[in-house]
């Protein structure tokens, strides 16, 4: 799957500093952007540095950069400002997690939930089937669509409460789910944690599920990670009784919603450790944004950023979507790529060796 496009690419040289550290190839005539192939493993990638272009292999990843000069300029600006000005904003589903898991479509943090009450699982599914087409309808004005999304999220949350969702059901749902992080996510989080660079994970899903996925799949916590998502309130028996704060849905998941974010480690045993408060996060005006939908670019709305580098993961429908992704994102990784290229990028952003 990941090598589907390799046969139509050919290797070309580059003068871009970002791209000098990546192997890159050109697209066939009906594609306008250049594509770079990078080895899948971070260690392999580091070993390739300075070697310029190398041949594709089975572990390689295709990368598209629409404007290499602009990207280099942004990298230079962020490097000069230093790690203290940088924050990372990431979507969760199909961005931090893989699109394919063992040959099957990976589940989303919302989609994996089994309430322990089939009647309510069916009711939530029916809501999805009604509202999901409306979410992507090109004819519904944004104000009306926003109301529909609030309605959908409100009804879904109501069903979770009415159906008596328990935290135990969340734990079981995650344990039996088809969800996995991209290779390199732990390295990315560790690298950023060491440099006190915050990672805001924006999701219109459920913070408690995302935290449980982090706990079960990564087996550790990171003090620099914040989940900006819908947070549940459980009673002493572990039964859901309400939701905290304003509903975050697909059309308002951005830094305006940051004030309702709670530290990741509330549930992970780091309750007493200090974290950046929301005000200090907003002073970090350089952004690395990671998403898998063009709409994810809106996650930095509400932040008056100076320089933003956007990375898009184009996981599927590549031929039909590549052009729009290439125009929207600074860097596009194709075919459900690992996170290792982003690890390399942040190491460049945090290096202080000048240009
Ligand atoms: Mg996503």
From TrEMBL:
A Pfam family it matches: UMPH-1
SUPFAM superfamilies registered for this protein in UniProt: HAD-like (SSF56784)
GO BP annotation list: nucleotide metabolic process
GO-annotated molecular function: 5'-nucleotidase activity; magnesium ion binding; nucleotide binding
GO CC list: cytoplasm
Enzyme Commission (EC) number: 3.1.3.5
Catalysis performed (reactions): a ribonucleoside 5'-phosphate + H2O = a ribonucleoside + phosphate
Keywords recorded for this protein, A-Z: Hydrolase, Magnesium, Metal-binding, Nucleotide metabolism, Nucleotide-binding
Top-rank taxon: Eukaryota
Presence of keyword Transport: no
PANTHER family per record: 5'-NUCLEOTIDASE (PTHR13045), 7-METHYLGUANOSINE PHOSPHATE-SPECIFIC 5'-NUCLEOTIDASE (PTHR13045:SF0)
Family under the similarity heading: Belongs to the pyrimidine 5'-nucleotidase family.
Protein name in the entry: 5'-nucleotidase
Species the sequence originates in: Ziziphus jujuba
